[in-house]
TrEMBL record:
It comes from Methylobacillus methanolivorans. SMART domains: HAMP, HATPase_c, HisKA. It catalyses: ATP + protein L-histidine = ADP + protein N-phospho-L-histidine. This is histidine kinase. It is found in: Cell inner membrane. It is an enzyme of class 2 (transferase). Residues 222-423 form the Histidine kinase domain.
Length: 442
C-alpha cells in the first residue's frame, strides 16, 4: 500500500508539473500582451500630447489601474531577471513585440512590479505594471483535489489488494500444511477469476494427492499384511524343526525372518501415517524416560541427560516412534554406547542422540533422510529398509521441527532434533511448563 501511495503521489506531482509547463506559455502570452498594451497606449498618449502637457499627462497616467510611469536614465544600473521560467518567457515575448532594445526588469529600485522601458524621441521612460497582474496565486485547490484523488485511489487499491491478499494467504497456509505432510481443507473458490482458477486447481491437486496416498497406503498395507501371514507360518515351521538337523542354520533363518518382519513393520509405519493423531501439551522428558527404561532393562548401555521439564505440543505416538527410531538406529550402527541429551534455547528444545559409530559422509546426510535410501559402506552395511530416518524426518516436520545428522568431532554421529517451543498463553499452562527445575540424569 505504501508503494501504491508513493506512485500515486508521484503521478499527481508529475501531472501538476506537466499542466503548469504547458499552461505557462498561454499565461505568459496574456501577461506580455497586457504589458505591451499598457506600454503602447502610454506611448501613444504621450506622442499625441503637446510637449508642455506631457508632465501633467504623466502625472495623470500614473496611478490609474495601478500603473505608474517614471522617467528613465539609461545609465542607471539594471538588475538581471530572476531565474524564473515564467518571468523570462514574459520578457522574451515583450521584446518580440516592442523591440530587442526594450528593457524588462522586475522590482527595480525596490518598487515591486514589472518594469518595461520605452523611448519617446530623446526621452526614455519606465512603465511599471504591478506584479499582482503577473504572478499567479498558488493553486491550493489543486492540492485538495489531488489529495482527494489519492485517497480515493488508495481506498480502491486497498479493496483490490484485500480481495487478492486473502485468497493468497489461505493458499500459502494450505501449501505450508501440504508441505509438512498434512492435507488442508478445500480452499474457498472466491476472488478474481485467476485466483478462483488457482484455488480450484489447488483443490483438485490436493484431492488427487489424497487419492494417490490412500491408494498407495492400501496397496502397501495389503502387500505387507499378505507377507506377514506366510512369514509367521514360516517362522513357526522353522522353530519346530529339530535342532539336530542344523542348529546354526535354524538360528540364521529365524533371524532373517525377524529382519523381514521388521522391514514389513517399517513399511506399515511409513504408509500408515501419523497426521490424524491429535496434539497434546506433553513433557518430552517423560517419553525419553520411558524409552530409556526399556533399553536399560534390555541390558543396553544408554546414558540420558535431560534439561528441565518443559511442556510442548506433541503427538505422543508419533514422537515415541521418532525417538525409538533414532535410538534404535544409534544402537544398530553406533558401537554399543548411546547418549541422549536435551537442552533448551530461547525458542527451541534440542534433543541429541549421540553414538560412537563410524559416522556418515557429509555428502550423504540429506540423502539418508529420504525414503528407501541406504549407504553401501560404513553405517549402511546393516539390514533394513531405509525408512527409519525418513519416518523420523516426516514426524519432525509434522511438529514444525527439524531433524539433522551431524558427524561428531570426536567420532560418531549426532542425530539432532530441534522442536519449537509453543507455550500457551494461560497462567495455568505457564505454571505447568516448569514442573521440575532441576535436570535429571540416568
Amino acid at each position: 500500500m505504501l508503494l501504491i501511495a508513493l506512485l500515486l503521489a508521484a503521478g499527481q506531482f508529475a501531472a501538476l508539473k506537466l499542466f503548469d509547463y504547458f499552461e505557462s506559455e498561454p499565461r505568459a502570452m496574456a501577461a506580455a500582451l497586457q504589458a505591451i498594451t499598457v506600454v503602447n497606449y502610454t506611448r501613444a498618449s504621450l506622442l499625441a500630447a503637446h510637449e508642455n502637457r506631457r508632465l501633467a499627462l504623466l502625472s495623470e497616467l500614473s496611478g490609474r489601474e495601478g500603473v505608474r510611469i517614471y522617467a528613465a536614465d539609461m545609465l542607471e544600473e539594471i538588475e538581471p531577471l530572476p531565474n524564473d521560467h515564467l518571468i523570462r518567457m514574459i520578457a522574451e515575448k515583450i521584446r518580440e513585440r516592442l523591440g530587442k532594445d526594450t528593457l524588462v526588469v522586475l522590482n527595480h529600485f525596490g518598487i515591486p512590479g514589472l518594469w518595461v522601458s520605452f523611448s519617446l524621441g530623446q526621452d526614455d521612460y519606465w512603465v511599471v505594471i504591478p506584479r499582482i497582474q503577473v504572478d499567479r496565486p498558488f493553486p491550493w485547490q489543486w492540492l485538495g483535489w489531488g489529495a482527494l484523488v489519492i485517497m480515493l485511489s488508495l481506498l480502491g487499491a486497498y479493496l483490490i489488494a484485500s480481495n487478492i491478499h486473502h485468497p493468497l494467504r489461505l493458499l500459502v497456509k494450505a501449501a505450508g500444511r501440504l508441505s509438512s505432510g498434512e492435507y488442508p481443507l478445500p480452499l474457498p473458490e472466491e476472488g478474481a477469476h485467476e485466483l478462483r482458477e488457482v484455488s480450484r486447481t489447488f483443490n483438485e491437486m490436493t484431492e488427487a494427492l489424497v487419492r494417490l496416498d490412500n491408494e498407495r497406503t492400501l496397496l502397501l498395507a495389503g502387500i505387507s499384511h499378505d507377507l506377514r501371514t506366510p512369514l509367521a507360518r514360516l517362522r513357526l515351521s522353522v522353530e519346530m524343526l529339530p535342532d539336530e538337523y542344523c542348529a546354526s542354520l535354524k538360528v540364521g533363518m529365524i533371524q532373517d525372518i525377524g529382519d523381514m518382519d521388521s522391514i514389513i513393520h517399517q513399511f506399515l509405519d511409513f504408509v500408515r501415517g501419523i497426521e490424524g493423531e491429535p496434539t497434546q501439551m506433553m513433557d518430552l522428558n517423560s517419553l525419553l524416560t520411558s524409552i530409556a527404561d526399556r533399553h536399560i532393562r534390555a541390558g543396553r548401555k544408554l546414558t540420558v541427560s535431560l534439561a528441565p521439564t518443559h511442556l510442548i505440543p506433541l503427538r505422543p505416538l508419533a514422537m515415541q516412534r521418532l525417538l525409538t527410531n533414532l535410538i534404535d538406529n544409534a544402537f544398530a550402527y553406533g558401537g554399543g554406547d548411546v547418549t541422549v541429551m536435551t537442552r533448551i534455547t530461547a525458542g527451541n528444545i534440542i534433543l541429541s542422540v549421540l553414538d560412537n559409530g563410524p559416522g556418515i559422509p557429509a555428502s550423504q546426510m540429506e540423502r539418508l533422510l529420504r525414503p528407501f535410501e541406504r549407504l553401501d559402506t560404513a553405517r549402511g552395511n546393516k539390514s533394513g529398509s531405509g525408512l527409519g530416518l525418513a519416518i523420523s524426518d516426516r514426524i519432525a516436520k509434522l511438529h514444525k521441527g527439524q531433524l539433522t545428522l551431524l558427524n561428531r568431532p570426536q567420532g560418531g554421529l549426532e542425530a539432532r532434533l530441534t522442536l519449537p517451543i509453543q507455550p500457551q498463553v494461560t497462567a495455568q499452562t505457564k505454571q505447568a511448563f516448569r514442573v521440575n527445575a532441576q535436570p535429571r540424569r540416568q
